[in-house]
Amino acid sequence: MKCPNCEQHELTEARENYLYQECGLGNVTLAGIVVRRCPGCGNVMPRVPNIEGLHDVIAHLLVTKPERLIAPEIVFLRKYLGWSGADFAKNMHCDRAQISKWEHGKVGMSKPYELLLREMVASGKKIEDYQRHEAAREKRFASRAVVLMLEEKEWREAA
Fold first, then answer.
1. 14 burial level (CB within 10 Å; 0-12, 13-18, 19+)
2. What string of H, E and C letters represents the secondary structure of 103-137?
3. Of 18-32, 65-79, 142-156, minimum mean pLDDT range
4. What is the per-residue pLDDT for 152?
5. Are strands 154-157 and 146-151 parallel, antiparallel or unpaired?
6. pLDDT tens digits for 115-133?
7. Residues 145-156: pLDDT tens digits?
8. What is the average per-residue pLDDT within 62-78?
9. What are phi and psi of 140, to 5 degrees?
10. Could you tell me if 148 and 155 are in contact, meaning their C-beta atoms sit under 8 angstroms apart?
């Protein structure tokens, strides 16, 4: 298959670990997925099967982690729920300026709001038709590394 970017080189294909920055989190690695690369222009195209299942696992890991949520995780969970900033503000019963402060790391989310967000995600208050895949946000915060593996078409955290 020719590279869709440069249309000059054949793509190479290999199974490898892939840092899944497209989700907006800088700490999620997908173990052993097929990644296509263009030797000419450097275009990288991962093949991520069952992306909805993958996002379900990431969301579950975020809402069950003992540490407080950081800005990129709040953004991920909002998008996972399928909400725009305005929808998020409405459902969180606060104004859009507050949402912006949380999502840009200007202030931390207070514990009651964080618990509400975690509960909404855990209870599955998700809107399926909202576009969840946007460009990754700037990495501002570090968090523990997460490695996920596809086992029998289901994503699980690697040991």
1. exposed
2. HCCCCCCCHHHHHHHHHHHHCCCCCCCCCCCCCCC
3. 142-156
4. 87
5. antiparallel
6. 999 999 998 866 543 333 3
7. 788 888 888 898
8. 96
9. -115, -20
10. yes
Q: Are 53 and 155 in contact (CB under 8 A)?
A: yes
d(CA 79, CA 117) in angstroms, rounded, equals 12
| Residue located via tokens 């997460």 | 146
- Rg, Å, the chain Cα set: 17
HEC string of 5-34 equals: CCCCCECEEEEEEEECHHHCCCCEEEEEEE
Token reading at 25: 């989190």
Q: Do you know the residue count of the chain?
A: 159
Q: What is the 3-state secondary structure (H, E, C) of 25-93?
A: CCCEEEEEEEEEECCCCCCEEEECCCHHHHHHHHHHHHHHCCCCCCHHHHHHHHHHHCCCHHHHHHHHC
Helix (H) or strand (E) holding 147: strand 146-151
Task: Answer yes or no: are the C-beta atoms of 24 and 76 closer than 8 Å.
Answer: yes
* Residue in the structure block whose two tokens are 């080189």: 9
